[in-house]
Amino acid sequence: MLWQILNNIGFNEKESKIYLALLETSAQPASVVARQSGINRTTTYLTLEDLLKKGIVNRFERKSIQYFEAVDPKQIINILENQKIDLEEKKNYLKKQIPKLESIAQTDSTKPRVSYFEGFEAIMNLYADSLNGDHKEIFSFLRFDKIPPRIVDYLEKYYLPKRLEKEIFVKIISSKPKEDAIWMDKEHQAKHLREIKCYDLDLPIQIEMFIYGDKMSFICLDENQPFGIQIKNKTIIESIKGIQELLWKIL
User: Fold this and answer.
1) The domain 113-250 is classified under which CATH number: 3.30.870.10, 3.30.70.20, 3.90.180.10, 1.10.10.10?
2) How confident is the model at residue 222 (pLDDT cuts 50, 70, 90)?
3) Using CA atoms, how far apart are residues 217 and 172, in angstroms rounded to an integer?
4) Which pTM does this prediction carry?
5) What is the pLDDT of residue 107?
6) What is the per-residue burial (b if ≥16 Cβ within 10 Å, else e) of 187-208?
7) Closest Cα partner for 173 from 152, 144, 150?
């Protein structure tokens, strides 16, 4: 479906269908757009207002009737470029304000801080958090064969390049692959700043656990409904690190 093309660049389904309806019929009143897109009038009006703010549609008046028209698809590239610049400015501003925000965060290290993450985007944020801070090593416990393709795709395209850029090394404990796997090659491991040790058991492990800094995260590797839990507590993390280091030496 054509609306999925727009969905892949950040449009929601209603925005996509309304834009496509305008693209197909040229300038139309909101009532016609609603009928053409199959979306009720109230939602169409609200969505058109959102698209106007984003610069995706234009509005003009003819004989006291407001008409809406879609911008040329090529213009969307310029809009995305402007959004990219705006996002970069916001990111730089936020970086400067982080110390102020962190100063009001929970600081009692004796009390564990537990956070819950649900959904693909939230899980990607949880992975990304493992690259924050001044630590240079991550301990990971996972099964490569249990990672869903969508998560693998994110890790390879976005997460891995950023980890390599920050020169963060990963020690991984995983199950022994049943056949030759590229990720077990020593040169491949060195290139990707990781070392892997394997156990020869078929354990019912369906999660990934990784430890970094003063945090530990558990991710349920479900392609449809992934969720994760993050624990922040110095005592707990140091204890789990000790257990993982013991396993590392044994394997």
Assistant:
1) 3.30.870.10
2) confident
3) 14
4) 0.60
5) 54
6) eebeebbbebeeeeeeeeeebb
7) 144
